[in-house]
Amino acid sequence: MIETILSNIALIIGTTLMYSTPLIYTSLGGVLSENSGVINIGLEGMMVIGAFAGAAIGYFVGDPWIAFIGAGIAGGLFGLLHAFACVTFGANQVVSGIAINFLGAGIALFLSRMFFEGATMTKSIPLDNKMPRPLNGVFPDGSLLNIIFDNQYATVYLALLMVLIIWFFMYKTKYGLRLRSVGEHPTAADTLGINVMRIRYLSVIMSGVFAGFGGAAMSLAIVSNFRPTLVSGHGFIALAAMIFGKWKPQGALLACLLFGGAQGLAVFLGQFDFEISTQLISMLPYVITIVVLIGFVGKSAAPSADGIPYEKEHKY
Amino acid sequence: MGYENVTKSLTKVIEMKNITKKFGDFVANDSVNLDVFKGKVHALLGENGAGKSTLMNILYGLYSPTSGEILINGKKVDITNPNIAIEHGIGMVHQHFMLIKPFTVAQNIILGQEPTSKMSVLNMKKALKDVKEISERYGLYVDPNAKIEDISVGMQQRVEILKALYRGAEILILDEPTAVLTPQEIVELIQIIKNLTKEGKSIILISHKLKEITDAADFCLIIRRGKHIDTVVVSETDEEGLASKMVGREVSFSVAKDDKEAGDEIFSIKDLVVKDNRDIIAVDKLNLSLKKGEILGLAGIDGNGQTELLEAITGLRKVESGEIKINGENITNKTPFQVISKKISHIPEDRQKRGLVLDFDISENAILENYYKNPFAKRGVLQYNNIKIYAKELIDKFDVRPREESKMARTLSGGNQQKVIIAREVSNDPDLLIAAQPTRGLDVGAIEFVHKALIEQRDNDKAVFLISFELDEIMNVSDRIAVIYEGKIVGIMDAKDAEVEKLGLMMAGGGNE
């Protein structure tokens, strides 16, 4: 009895890690962009294009790491677009983000039809060409560790490592200090000779790169192809996780684990014969997102200059 | 002796020659000349909008001049961005502090020139040591680990000065440094300035306050509407002399005001408790009352509950407990609409945020509180003809410039924006007029106007409640003065008996209760 409970818990932990991974990458992207002062609700679109690029490159090239990096570049290009609109032209960041969400979905579908004989889905990547599973078969069969780690793809560990790296970058290096200063008070940073435009550009581009990674962590690991419904709101959940995590990488990680856990729970509960329809159960992560955003998030944690375009010769 | 003779033997560190800056057709600086000498304080005096900040922003590389040249230590330099200014030893303390609130003091000071160990990793140990070193050297004591949002405005200013010194500044530009300080902090600042000049630093002091110029400066450049008026030796002139040069006519400092017997009590606050945005008690069992025909001035340092008190009276903030009464009627926790209808008018602290709708024109702003009433609206439809006629009347009566009711509020100068607000509020014929910082950021001429308007209300037997951080204003305009400290009234006195030192002490919490 205890053994089944434990192994069920291990199963839930395993699925939590698996489902959290794409969210972690993407919300790290959000952390970078918004701490530099640019709201990025285009994460969803960047994630979609990353998922497509990962699946397509993975299928044609056969190397998951090249595919993963390609996905980052694809997301980064969309980040560049967002930066171009928001930083250079001072466009409304929310509107630009929405446009990017449409554009990401549209272009992914368009390219999919172009390269895969009119299909909206990319062709499946064979298991050998998917992301490796570093701990596959390391632990003895049936052990709890095996249940948790056996099927985890490399993207999972990389995501956790990235949280550490981004945290270190933001709070322990001078560039992190500068990035945060630009998001809090760009005029102050400017008067100290910090290049506000450059930092915002790089941050938004990196935000796209990470969202692209997030997308590829789905299409190269959790599943093995791209389809239009694959991302379906995960970019927004990642955005919510970043906000719930108070715009901090470590906070975003915990929030992503919560949302990923909800998803894992939904999957776990789905295997039983409940009198509840599975559709209701799969609503769980989205419901939790809404509840969390309504109940627990104050505006105070956001960087002061988040969402405000910076104009130089304006007024000092 | 004259400026030329006095400065003959001094070393020039900065020469700004024939600086002209145009924004489109507008000439902000019209061939202005400025020399700064080593170890001396050079003041820059002028009314708001005279072009002082523009000139300094040019020196600091934030604007580029249309024509003219800058020499530093005798060499011509092209300052195209703040980095170049910093390299040449120029540091600037901006009027609105350029500090990052969630960062610590040390982080703010090192930002942009961070000490690092390998791979750009911050070396906070060295940062703390460096900050401590310079702060001790110049007697600017700060806690390097405190967050900016937790320290006082005076402390924040020290951080700004340290920021410049950390970058090796030899020339410090202080932009309106006393605007936000208490009287005691001003004394401290002047001492700091003296310490700095003793160490050989040169200071450029931007101000429109005459007293601090006579207290701290050696020389003074006066500019009016962008034009170079004169450079004088401060010790050879006085406040009146400086003022008439600044404004271009004789000005009187004292506010003309007849004695007047106050009438019956009209407004009272009993045991008022109000919380601030962080849910902390900001107004703590406060008691206050006003009589007809008197001006009550509320003195106090920013952040001692003034804002919350005002918002509670005007219905913008919830009252936790206590009672607010006007004409015997309880108005506690009424909506702003109801408060206005009880004949309370309000000149808000932030005129751009709460006083005006910046993208409405003057006429629309003039009827913001009465738009639904006849003759401005009939059966729910605005009567623009009537609104315009009314706005024109107000513009004439209150001398708003430009005299066009269709001008957007945004395009008006600060003084004229304030006139529109005062026109609207006074025209409601209020029993109580609340004026919060009514002259903040205004120049001498506009200040005179505002003070006259307040005194006229009083002379018409109305009550006026004046809240200001400017002690001079409180002392000149009020009949009675109350001092607020940490949400409590710590003293009330007749304006005739008030002394600056005593008030300053009470404002800082050292009053005898």
Task: Break the fold down into its secondary structure elements and pairings.
The complex is a heterodimer of chains A (316) and B (513).
Chain A: H1 2-35, H2 43-61, H3 64-88, H4 93-115, H5 144-149, H6 154-172, H7 174-184, H8 186-191, H9 196-222, H10 234-244, H11 249-270, H12 278-282, H13 284-295
Helix pairs in contact in A: 1-6, 1-9, 1-10, 1-11, 2-3, 2-4, 2-9, 2-10, 3-4, 3-9, 6-7, 7-9, 10-11, 10-13, 11-13
Chain B: H1 3-7, E1 12-23, E2 26-37, E3 41-45, H2 52-59, E4 67-72, E5 75-77, H3 82-87, E6 90-93, H4 105-110, H5 124-137, H6 153-166, E7 171-175, H7 183-198, E8 202-207, H8 210-216, E9 219-224, E10 227-233, H9 239-247, E11 265-275, E12 281-291, E13 295-299, H10 306-313, E14 319-326, E15 329-330, H11 336-341, E16 344-347, H12 351-355, H13 362-366, E17 377-378, E18 381-382, H14 384-398, H15 414-427, E19 432-436, H16 444-459, E20 463-468, H17 471-477, E21 480-485, E22 488-494, H18 500-507
Parallel strand pairs in B: 3-8, 3-9, 6-7, 7-8, 13-20, 13-21, 16-19, 19-20
Antiparallel strand pairs in B: 1-2, 1-4, 4-5, 9-10, 11-12, 11-14, 14-15, 17-18, 21-22
Write up what this structure looks like.
The complex is a heterodimer of chains A (316) and B (513). Chain A is an all-alpha fold and 316 residues long. Chain A has one domain: ABC transporter involved in vitamin B12 uptake, BtuC, CATH 1.10.3470. In chain A, 70% of the residues lie in helices and 0% in strands. Chain A contains 13 helices and no strands. Chain A has helices at 2-35, 43-61, 64-88, 93-115, 144-149, 154-172, 174-184, 186-191, 196-222, 234-244, 249-270, 278-282, 284-295. In chain A, α1 (2-35) crosses α6, α3 packs antiparallel against α9 and α11 (249-270) packs antiparallel against α13 (284-295). The longest helix of chain A has 34 residues, at 2-35. Chain B is α/β, with parallel strands linked by helices and 513 residues long. Chain B folds into four domains: 1-89 and 170-251, P-loop containing nucleotide triphosphate hydrolases (Rossmann fold, 3-Layer(aba) Sandwich), CATH 3.40.50.300; 98-167, no CATH class; 263-343 and 430-513, Rossmann fold (3-Layer(aba) Sandwich), CATH 3.40.50.300; 352-428, no CATH class. Chain B has helices spanning 3-7, 52-59, 82-87, 105-110, 124-137, 153-166, 183-198, 210-216, 239-247, 306-313, 336-341, 351-355, 362-366, 384-398, 414-427, 444-459, 471-477, 500-507; strands at 12-23, 26-37, 41-45, 67-72, 75-77, 90-93, 171-175, 202-207, 219-224, 227-233, 265-275, 281-291, 295-299, 319-326, 329-330, 344-347, 377-378, 381-382, 432-436, 463-468, 480-485, 488-494. In chain B, the strands form five sheets. In chain B, strands 6-7-8-3-9-10 form a six-stranded mixed sheet, sandwiched between helices. A six-stranded mixed sheet of chain B has the order 16-19-20-13-21-22. In chain B, strands 2-1-4-5 form a four-stranded antiparallel sheet, with helices on one face. The longest helix of chain B is centred in the middle third of the chain and has 16 residues, at 183-198. The radius of gyration of chain B is 25 Å and the shape is globular. Chain B starts with a helix and ends in a 6-residue tail after the last helix. The interface between A and B is medium-sized, with 21 and 28 residues.
